[in-house]
Design goal:
- The protein is mainly beta.
- It contains no helices and 11 strands.
- The strands form 4 sheets. Strands 7, 8, 9, 10 and 11 form a 5-stranded antiparallel beta sheet that branches. It has a two-stranded antiparallel ribbon with strand order 1-4. Strands 2-3 form a two-stranded antiparallel ribbon.
- This is Carboxypeptidase regulatory-like domain-containing protein.
Length: 101
């Protein structure tokens, strides 16, 4: 099943031949109604799945220029998800799980 993830014409991808037109983004969902695919992550509670390729992202950087967290969303239900990175002396140490924000 393919389900649109945007409902208004202001959202979506610009059409290559006419930038005023928008191409709705779609997300493939499984039989359980949850998004599925290579860019899908689940929050740490296991309740919600997010197709990162269909969501806007907002990276945040620390004073040293390292990306300390990235937020994706909101999804069509108004939820956003965030992953935090840990850095030590400019060396990336790892990422957290995806948490709802």
């Amino acid at each position: 099943m393919i389900q649109p993830v945007v409902a208004n014409t202001a959202a979506g991808l610009p059409h290559p031949s006419d930038p005023t037109l928008k191409i709705p983004m779609v997300s493939v969902v499984g039989a359980d109604g949850m998004p599925t695919g290579p860019n899908v992550v689940t929050d740490t509670t296991g309740q919600f799945a997010f197709d990162l390729s269909s969501l806007a992202s907002a990276p945040h950087y620390d004073v040293a220029g390292n990306m300390d967290y990235v937020t994706y969303g909101p999804d069509r239900n108004g939820r956003s998800i965030r992953q935090t990175s840990t850095w030590m002396n400019g060396v990336w140490m790892g990422d957290s799980g995806w948490v709802l924000v």
